[in-house]
Design brief:
By secondary structure, the chain is of the alpha/beta class. It has helices at about 20-35, 55-70, 80-90, 120-130, 150-165, 185-195, 220-230, 260-270, 285, 300-310, 350-360, 365-370, 385-395, 400-405, 450-470, and strands spanning about 5, 10-15, 45-50, 75-80, 95-100, 110-115, 120, 150, 175-180, 200-205, 235-240, 245-250, 255, 275, 290-295, 315-320, 325-330, 330-335, 335-340, 340-345, 375-385, 415, 420-425, 430-435, 440-450.
Amino acid sequence: MDSLKFGTSGLRGLAVDLIGTPSARYTLAFLTHLQGDGQVEPGDPVLVGRDLRDSSPAIAASIIEAIGKAGFAALDCGELPTPALALAALTLGAPAIMVTGSHIPADRNGLKFYLGSGEITKADEAGIIAALDMSPPARRRTPLHQPQLMPEALAAYLERYRQAFGAGALRGLRLGVYEHSSVARDALVTLLGNLGATVMPLGRADRFVPIDTEALSPDDATRARTWVAAERLDALLSTDGDADRPLLADEFGTFVRGDTLGILAAQFLGADRVVTPITSNSAIEALGSFAVMRTKVGSPYVIAGMLDALLQGGKLVIGFEANGGLLLGSDTVINGRLLAALPTRDAVLPLLAVLVAARARGVSLSQLVATLPPRIARSDRLEHVPQERTAALLQRLANLDRAERFLAEMGQVGAVSSLDGLRFTLTSGDIVHYRGSGNAPELRCYTEAATAERAEALLAWGLKAAAAVVR
């Protein structure tokens, strides 16, 4: 179990370290923590969902067995997007566990924990870890409750957006869906068709493909351009593995960054306050449309910021991350139809919001993106970098003299933020930002500049310079 750790998106580690006893142990710790807080008692339902990884069914089976033997009622929601499971948990007021490694490699997996009121907090995370060392409640040899199937969880999620946007919302659009191994691949095709679009499913995979929306490969870019041209698409849509991060390419096959999607979706939904991590594009401040709060990377921090924004008088509060996952913190209305709050990362809402916004204005997707201030952001990662090496690099760059020497080739340091990792703003306005991944052995690099060419040059340099230190 040495690979298992809590990060910004729950528990992650090697799949072989999760199957069987370890996943059951974390499940019992989760339930023990909730019982200690008086949030659940034996006999209550606990929802379980999973993504399409090869290891996910076995891990889910271990969790379901542990739930039953602890005296709770397991509701097996099957394969569905993480936000769909979160919606079902909110609807029932019941806790949930999602088996997913999101975008990380296929040999890894993870668990995401939900309360009946939404995502777990950092305090809940600490409570679960503490409960691992407690004596668990007596376990029955056979489950008190046999698991029940709950396929309606996925159906309710799709109906949420069909009702909110309306049957003709995407009429006239030709949309491609890059299916790969996204757990939302079939659901997304169905939903887009129900909203009136002509839909072309593309690129279905038989094995799990780890799509990271913040670190797309050159093959992904080539594939998008080829499909868009061949199928005469208005846009190409996809998600990461568990469908809490969107992926969208315009009519030229150019991918739109997740934080750009977040800004455009917030505009469409009428947000007055936006909460987003320090890694998101600074175009959001330049736009001047919202009160903006910056946080550390990770949905728990964004959710905490959203709660603060509501307490400060926010009417329609939206959060999003640089990966594009959008959190709806307030109820809103779309064309007279209510869309209830769903404060967890969701891929489907930003995809639909941006497409409908472009259609309503009578412009293409690329033209809609061009309405934003010209700040271009790029990001990528160095994989297989131990956390201690990332920490050593950040410690080195925390010394301003060393940082200035390190960055001298790119420009002079004007300001530094240590909110999450180290974000250097050069006197030119260019940005280079390093931080360690919260859930994988990776060093991430983010850059921003006035042009795509400069942002890409900064990124190439930033990765090469960092690799010389951490490799």
